[in-house]
Design goal:
- There is one protein chain.
- By secondary structure, this protein is α+β, with helices and mostly antiparallel strands.
- The chain has five helices and 14 strands.
- It has helices at residues 2-15, 18-34, 192-197, 205-210, 259-262, and strands spanning 36-38, 44-46, 76-94, 103-123, 131-143, 149-150, 156-157, 163-177, 181-190, 221-232, 235-244, 252-257, 266-273, 276-290.
- It has a ten-stranded antiparallel β-barrel. Strands 1-2 form a two-stranded antiparallel sheet. It has a two-stranded antiparallel sheet with strand order 6-7.
- The radius of gyration is 21 Å and the shape is elongated.
């Protein structure tokens, strides 16, 4: 964990190094020189940055896109803050022979996920090329409910920490398809698979032991992506998938952002794993800190 944090700090330091600022400044100067307007006094005034929409496009749900802020198509740095609250399990099924019940419903999880991601847009979006960004992401988790219990003959208590920290590096590519659709794809390396395992007691070390899995080493790589639909400029509807590579229980997380349609920041998540699945309810808030 310490090596990953050191590597994360080094990458972020490289992103904000003087050379990066110099390159970004030079690029911005060239763009400003090419796109200026003149006021009545004959002075050159830079045009405002062009955004795709009025709503944040820097992330779908939990994972980032390559875009900055509201879709600003300029090389440079960006910083976003995201807060998600995993309310609980709405419904779930499993086919394990060691559980007392094969159905779970209305179980509280009570997990806060407070994250920040910094990224550098290294390629702007063109007519045929996608926008590409690389960056780092840090997540602090806080559980405000008691540890979950596996419903076995002995009601096995899960040894879950009330607080935890996760860090990962990522590369993301984003492309608009027409005016109302955006597709996103990327790869992250770090602790995101561990975060996904914390969403269900059936992905815990204790549950893996009940399933006969002794080699419960956490995966580090994860593929992510999804699509955003903009029926209105300020009302996005998004679907996001997160697929860890090499996890023993083969979890798959699909997040569906319905907040714009329901007038709430509400998400529904489908967590599929070996031997079962859970349907989760989530509140999520994304804030563009800079630019």
């Amino acid at each position: 964990m310490r090596n990953k944090l050191v590597l994360t700090i080094m990458l972020f330091a490289a992103m904000i190094s003087p050379s990066a600022f110099a390159a970004d400044s030079a690029s911005s100067s060239q763009d400003s020189a090419r796109s200026t307007q003149t006021d009545r006094g004959g002075r050159n005034l830079p045009k405002k940055k062009k955004s795709i929409t009025r709503t944040p496009l820097s992330g779908l749900v939990l994972m980032p896109t390559a875009y900055k802020s509201t879709g600003i198509n300029e090389l440079g740095l960006a910083l976003d803050i995201n807060a998600a609250y995993i309310i609980g399990r709405l419904y779930g099924r499993n086919d394990y022979d060691w559980t007392m019940e094969d159905k779970d419903y209305l179980d509280r999880i009570g997990l806060w996920l407070l994250s920040a991601d910094g990224k550098l847009l290294v390629q702007t979006e063109g007519k045929y090329r996608p926008a590409i960004a690389a960056g780092v992401q840090g997540i602090y988790s806080l559980r405000d409910s008691s540890n979950p219990t596996l419903k076995t003959n002995q009601d096995l208590k899960i040894n879950a920490k009330s607080t935890n920290g996760y860090a990962n590096m990522f590369v993301a590519m984003s492309k608009r398809l027409g005016r109302k659709f955006i597709i996103n794809a990327g790869y992250s390396d770090g602790d995101m698979p561990k975060m996904i395992n914390s969403l269900s007691e059936y992905l815990s070390v204790e549950a893996m032991a009940q399933n006969g899995i002794t080699d419960n080493r956490d995966a580090t790589g994860m593929i992510f992506g999804g699509m955003m639909w903009l029926p209105k400029p300020d009302s996005p509807i998004s679907v996001e998938f997160m697929i860890p590579q090499g996890s023993p229980m083969h979890p798959r997380l699909v997040n569906l952002h319905l907040g714009s349609m329901l007038k709430l920041n509400f998400e529904i998540s489908y967590l599929k794993f070996k031997g079962g699945w859970d349907l989760l309810g989530i509140f999520q808030f994304r804030y563009n800190y800079w630019p």
